[in-house]
Specification:
Belongs to the BexD/CtrA/VexA family. The chain is built from 16 helices and 30 strands. With 723 residues, it is α+β, with helices and mostly antiparallel strands. It folds into 5 domains: 248 residues, no CATH class; 92 residues, Roll (Outer membrane lipoprotein wza fold like); 57 residues, no CATH class; 82 residues, Outer membrane lipoprotein wza domain like (Outer membrane lipoprotein wza fold like, Roll), CATH 3.10.560; 126 residues, no CATH class.
Length: 723
Amino acid sequence: MLKKVIALFLSLCFLSTVAPFAQAVDTTTISPAAIQAAQQYLQNNQQGKSSISGNQQQQSNQDQVDTDEKINFLTMDPTLEAKAKWDRLSKLEQDISKNITIEGYEPVTQFGYDLFKKSASSFLPTSQEDVPVNSDYIIGPGDTFNITIWGVSEGIFKVSVNQNGEIVLPKVGVVNVAGLSYGQLKPFVESQLNKFYEGINVGITFGTLKTLRIYVVGEVKQPGSYSLNSLSTAYAALFAAGGPTKQGSMRDIKILRNGRAVATIDLYKFLLKGDSSQDRQLQSGDTVFVPVIGDVAAVVGAVKRPAIYEIKGQADLVDVLWLAGGVNAATYLNRVQIERMVAHQKKIVMDEQVAALSEKVQMGIPIRDLDIIKVFSVYASIENKVLLRGEVKYPGSYEYKEGMRLLDVLSKNSFKTAGIPQIEVVRAAAPGSSKTNIYPIDYQKLFVEKDSAYNIYLEPLDEISVFLPERKDESVTLKGEFKRPGKYALMLGERISSVIERAGGFTDYAYIYGAILTRPSIKSIQQENYMDLISKLEIDLLRKERELGNGMVAQQSISMKEETYSKTKQIIDYLKKKTFKGRVIVNLDDLSKLKGSKNDVELEDGDEVLVPKVPKSVVVLGEVYNPTAVSYIAGLRVRDYLSSVGGTTSTADNGGIYILRANGSVVSQRQGKDVVAMGLYPGDSILVPEKLDSVTLWGFTKDFTQWIFEAIASILVIDKVFK
């Protein structure tokens, strides 16, 4: 029973605290035995667990199990599928993406390499039926032709070019055609046949084409020697070899013939402009060489094609922006930021103005290797509006006009139902301030008595809320990263998305996944169940005392009995003082996705919603060599964080490792999850329990006393970490 109460306290302590605010503190004193107790409790049916309603709780439990397959916070999706996607990124893509995802940008990939994901057969000609033979095609060994003559004499002859470049013509004999172009072949054959045939016409068609031996080497996926159709070009050879790797250049590919470069291919011309003029026909023995990639620059933000681009020569900022497709209508041109590595020692940022962006005009802003160019969007908020919401027929934004008053937006016919609604005007205390002033409007004085004092002048961004009066004395409180945090009157049946919308939504720094909803009614249930278990513990301890007094533990001295009794009373007295927050696990999302979803829970009077800023750490506790907080890095798995603290100890229960999510949910091996292979969110905690002996802790009073005080010490530390 004692273990159950301590485990209950541990789990509720975790579930009811603000996990995203975990800090890097000294956790070396946290007991693995206490963590084991918490784990044992979590795998059983929990009493006093927060709930919304009977049916909703059942669904909520399933949602917690499914959280890891569904939730996506920026690019930090912890699913195995997302980890596999991350692993498919090149080292360059990962390095750049780590820098930009923490600022809210999506990961970027290297431009152009997807071209070669298609099958090579889609680009390789298989016969002259697929691609017509051009007049400049060079005849060589392996080519076959069908020669048709008609007139005084008629016939069809099939001839092949042998290894010496020769063909055999009827009556004429052996003639050399190697090196002739296809356009030269017909008049040459006709002149030879006319020596023996008079008054004939000659027609020549290809039978089969020779094959070419082409070498594709350098930074390609499958370097080697390839036998290609003689109509094949350099592009076809690249496709046959799988294309350049992401360590290979897309812009400086060489065609080598007899030891010298005869052509250079820049695939960007083909990809960006459709220019295939560089795609030269190959000759047997040619080598297609792909060198290591040159300098690169990444472009992210408000451009048409964010990506990592290879740059050639002295690239200007305008050159790179046009590689990215140029800016769009939402681009803020007064500030483009360049993040740059300087002298292999430090990073700097430079803000540039590009208001006169033109493809033909250089800006004089050189771009260097590994620059990250951040193109910002204009401020998206509409400034000249007032917002009408709630129990009205036509909610939404209305154009603000100078001198606009409340009755310019509202009339008696604006309301959905008959009766007297409650009206409030919510206004920012100062321009740009998150604090608000609320102005109650008396319906009777505004519409019946027509008191002009209540027909107040409106200001831009005012919000007019209309709701039913049944719950006018009830409220909810929003804290943290909301645009207008504060206390809001609660409408009948109002859901969390509605109140968040009234608060202006989330700020850019909001960590939505770590949102915390606390509820007074749940707090009372948790406390009641907890105290009930404390009472049962007291009865159980009294029974144990009687057993000790009856000599059931023969070696126990009287002084040890008294010490045990005194310490257990101290523990009970301590546990009685603890209170709970009444946390309800919620999975919030962007307002557009939250509205109408199963996560859009109905609020109660006294509810408090806290949305923290994005934390920067993950906490690792329990049987590891260095229990501590570790800096969060997107894409890392549990095993990576365990490795960073020295790994698990020899006494660790590696099969019992579990994750306490920042949203309050728990993921364990017993849910069928491969926990160590899972990814994490900022603010998550990893708990590694200890393997305990199967000998009952009640069997020896001394062992029990040691264990229980170790557990209570652990509670104190954990309570300090997550307070």
